[in-house]
Every structure is written in C-alpha cells, then in structure tokens.
Amino acid sequence: MAQFVINGGKKLKGEIRVSGAKNAALKAFAAALLTKEPVLIKNVPEVEDVSRMAELIKTLGPKVEHIRRGEYRVTADKLNSSEIEPEIGKKLRASIVLTAPILIRTGKVVFPHPGGCVIGERPIDVFIDGFKALGANVSQENGLYNITARKLKGAKIVFHNVSVTGTETMMMSAVTAEGVTTLKNCACEPEIESLAQFLNSCGADIKGAGTHTIIVSGVKSLGGGTYRTIPDRIEAGSFAMLAAASGSNIKVKNCRPDHLDSLLGLFQKMGVKVKVGTDSIEVAAGKKIGAVGVKTREYPGFPTDLQAPLSVLLTQAEGQALVHETIYEGRLSWTEELKRMGANILNLDPHRIEIRGPTELRGREIESPDLRAGMAYVIAALCAKGTSVINNIYQIDRGYEKIEERLKKLGADIRRV
Ligand code: EPZ
C-alpha cells in the first residue's frame, strides 16, 4: 500500500495551480448520460473518484474516451443497463447522481446505498422522497433500491434537508419531466449552478440554480455539449490554509476567490495576510495569527470539506477556538491523530471541538481515514517537526491529483513510497 513520507517544518514558497473540482466533474459525467449525443468534459482532475465514475458509466453501456489529460468524451447513445454496479456504487457517493439519467433513459434504476467517505450517517431519504414526488415507484430488495417510472412528472418538492447531490439529482430528474418542477430548500453550492449552466447549454430550462429555489421546465430532450469544470474551491482553500499554517508564501493560482468568501472573511479576522486577485489568492507569511471559531454550513457558509484543514491551521493560531461541525456527526474523529501529533484539542461532543494554540506538532505515522482528513494530515505533517508517514493514501488520491508532485514544487519534502 502506498504511503507518503513527509519531513516537515520547512517553509514553502511559490505558486500552485488548482485543479478542476472533483465534485463538479463527477456530476457532469452523470449529466452526460441524459443525452444520446457526445459530451466533452474539460479541466477534469485526474483523480481516483473520476476513474471510478468512468468505470461505472462504462458498465451501463456508454462510451467514455480519455482524450488527453483532463479531457474526456462521454457518448451515451446506448444505455442498456439499469443497474449501478454495487461494488463501485458502494465506494462512491456521487454514484447516486447517476440514478436520474438511468431512470429517465431506461424507466428503471437499481442501486446500492452509495458509499464515499466515512464521515457520519449519509442517508438518501431526500432522493427517495424526490423520486416519489416526481411519480416514481420505490421499493427495496436484497439491500438494493429499485425505482421505476415510465415518465417522470413535474412537481413541487420541498427538501427537508439541504443536500448537494440531492439537489443535483432532482434537478437532473426534472429536466425532461412532464411540466414544471419547483425545488425548494435547495443547496446553493457553485457546483450546482455550474451543472445547471451546462444543462441549459444542452437545451434544458433551469432557473434559479445557486439559490434556494430552482424551477425546472421540462423539455423534450437534451443535445450534447461541452462542460468546463470549475476550479476546485476545496483544493484552493486547502492550499491557502497550508500556506497560513506553515508560515509560507504561496500563490494559489487558477481559482475562484468568490467561491471562498467565507474562508477569506475568516482569514481577515485571524490576521492572515492575503492578496486576492481575479483568479488567485496569495498568502504571505505574517507574524502572529489569531484563533477564530467557526461553524460549518451549507454554501455560502464555511464548507464542511474545509473543516479539517482549518482545524490544523487553528493549532498554529494564538488562542482558543470552537470548531462546530454541523453537517456530519462523524467528521471530527480524525482529530484524535492530530492530538497525538501534539495538538491541544478538547472533544466536547461529536459535533464540537475546542482547539488551543499555538502548539508545536510532531511527526507521526498516521492512517488517512478519508479524503479531506487525509489532506489535513498532509498539511499537519508539513507543519510538524520530524518525519510523518501517512498510510492509506488512496483516500487522498480520490480527490487530489498528484498532490506530492505539486507540493514538491513548493519546496515540500514529501515522497510517495
Ligand atoms: C456533497 O455530499 C459532497 N460530495 C461532499 O464532499 C460534501 O461534504 C457535502 O456535499 C456537503 O457539502 C459530492 O458532491 C460528491 P449532502 P452529499 O447530501 O451531497 C444530510 C468530499 O470530501 N442528508 O449535501 O452527499 C446529510 O446527512 C465530499 O468531496 C440527509 O439527511 O452531502 C448531511 O448531514 C465528502 N438526507 C447533509 O444532509 C439525504 O437524503 C448534507 O449532505 C441526503 C443528505
């Protein structure tokens, strides 16, 4: 099993380019199955989750061509299976987004409870309720969900929970449904708005994506098109926090600073020196940074996917701060290892920790539990004195493209062995 060996404590310097957003690209792959015409997907991060998605789509019949680095063509003229391959589906949360095109194209979809990061309970009731509201029949047998519908019908759906993939799946389901669908209490993440723009460019009629109410007027069919993946705001935020935590000068390039307003606001309160450009964030090593507490929230609030790197940064800040993880109840357990690296963290309950800083971190051997916590360990290891070994880096490869090569260019001492 591959691992990262990191010798920490070095100041980093230079520029780092942000990849396309995994969580946007994966949805474009699913959306490509809504049309029989070819869809070109650009600026795709070459990460494990994208490979799993491509693999999964091929099992359904469509062609997925890897044209060049970061560019794929999906042609779904044939879609001859209604079943999401359970072994892959269980590994990938985004597999659930495929339920919409499969149901529309074949009248049926059979799928396992989707997997992904182990970060707490990840129910799918929002999807099940949504499909029912659009007129589908839902049953469960042998641990698999079975949804059928000859033709989906527009409806008003008020999500009882704000869900990113739930919003995306219902938006896609409504695109060719009969009549108008009104989705309320939608998630507003930039990846959703970007998906809607792409679907509209293929002939859909979606209004309001990026707000809490989305109105979809059903159209007969969609044509093909080109999707350019938006920059990964989580990767950009993680690099900026690496710079702040390690006292380094790093320019994060090719990003969308307007997608990171909550983080930039927090930086200002903490005293982190940043220069924001139109597509870059430059962090300059400052003197002291102060601790500021945060509650993770749906966009435009502070993202749960940045909670782990922020917690590492707070171990290097002066003072005491509360981190309140409101989205997932299992997403703070990774901090046990951070404590063993020397962090002063008090676990108040499954949703809240108190961090006191600054503390000196020490290198250790650590197991990466999930993607974002894995990246946080990389940041912690780069800040720590001594050598760290990070195991199970498949989790990091799921979402970050060749991370060690990019960090090496900043002067990081990191090796994949
Ligand atoms: C997406 O997951 C992202 N994944 C996650 O990124 C991200 O952490 C999350 O949104 C929140 O921003 C993808 O886009 C593939 P949710 P998703 O449904 O859509 C509850 C990463 O590291 N809920 O918005 O699965 C749920 O329990 C990953 O890249 C229900 O109650 O998350 C949670 O508390 C990890 N019922 C909240 O909603 C449902 O049916 C938000 O989850 C669905 C969700």
TrEMBL record:
<keyword id="KW-0132">Cell division</keyword>
<dbReference type="InterPro" id="IPR013792">
    <property type="entry name" value="RNA3'P_cycl/enolpyr_Trfase_a/b"/>
</dbReference>
<dbReference type="InterPro" id="IPR005750">
    <property type="entry name" value="UDP_GlcNAc_COvinyl_MurA"/>
</dbReference>
<dbReference type="InterPro" id="IPR050068">
    <property type="entry name" value="MurA_subfamily"/>
</dbReference>
<feature type="binding site">
    <location>
        <position position="305"/>
    </location>
    <ligand>
        <name>UDP-N-acetyl-alpha-D-glucosamine</name>
    </ligand>
</feature>
<dbReference type="GO" id="GO:0005737">
    <property type="term" value="C:cytoplasm"/>
</dbReference>
<comment type="similarity">
    <text>Belongs to the EPSP synthase family. MurA subfamily.</text>
</comment>
<feature type="active site" description="Proton donor">
    <location>
        <position position="117"/>
    </location>
</feature>
<keyword id="KW-0963">Cytoplasm</keyword>
<keyword id="KW-0808">Transferase</keyword>
<keyword id="KW-0573">Peptidoglycan synthesis</keyword>
<keyword id="KW-0961">Cell wall biogenesis/degradation</keyword>
<feature type="binding site">
    <location>
        <position position="327"/>
    </location>
    <ligand>
        <name>UDP-N-acetyl-alpha-D-glucosamine</name>
    </ligand>
</feature>
<comment type="function">
    <text>Cell wall formation. Adds enolpyruvyl to UDP-N-acetylglucosamine.</text>
</comment>
<dbReference type="InterPro" id="IPR001986">
    <property type="entry name" value="Enolpyruvate_Tfrase_dom"/>
</dbReference>
<feature type="binding site">
    <location>
        <begin position="22"/>
        <end position="23"/>
    </location>
    <ligand>
        <name>phosphoenolpyruvate</name>
    </ligand>
</feature>
<protein>
    <recommendedName>
        <fullName>UDP-N-acetylglucosamine 1-carboxyvinyltransferase</fullName>
        <ecNumber>2.5.1.7</ecNumber>
    </recommendedName>
</protein>
<keyword id="KW-0131">Cell cycle</keyword>
<dbReference type="GO" id="GO:0008360">
    <property type="term" value="P:regulation of cell shape"/>
</dbReference>
<feature type="domain" description="Enolpyruvate transferase">
    <location>
        <begin position="7"/>
        <end position="407"/>
    </location>
</feature>
<dbReference type="GO" id="GO:0051301">
    <property type="term" value="P:cell division"/>
</dbReference>
<feature type="modified residue" description="2-(S-cysteinyl)pyruvic acid O-phosphothioketal">
    <location>
        <position position="117"/>
    </location>
</feature>
<dbReference type="GO" id="GO:0019277">
    <property type="term" value="P:UDP-N-acetylgalactosamine biosynthetic process"/>
</dbReference>
<dbReference type="GO" id="GO:0071555">
    <property type="term" value="P:cell wall organization"/>
</dbReference>
<dbReference type="GO" id="GO:0008760">
    <property type="term" value="F:UDP-N-acetylglucosamine 1-carboxyvinyltransferase activity"/>
</dbReference>
<keyword id="KW-0670">Pyruvate</keyword>
<feature type="binding site">
    <location>
        <position position="93"/>
    </location>
    <ligand>
        <name>UDP-N-acetyl-alpha-D-glucosamine</name>
    </ligand>
</feature>
<dbReference type="Pfam" id="PF00275">
    <property type="entry name" value="EPSP_synthase"/>
</dbReference>
<dbReference type="GO" id="GO:0009252">
    <property type="term" value="P:peptidoglycan biosynthetic process"/>
</dbReference>
<keyword id="KW-0133">Cell shape</keyword>
<dbReference type="InterPro" id="IPR036968">
    <property type="entry name" value="Enolpyruvate_Tfrase_sf"/>
</dbReference>
<comment type="pathway">
    <text>Cell wall biogenesis; peptidoglycan biosynthesis.</text>
</comment>
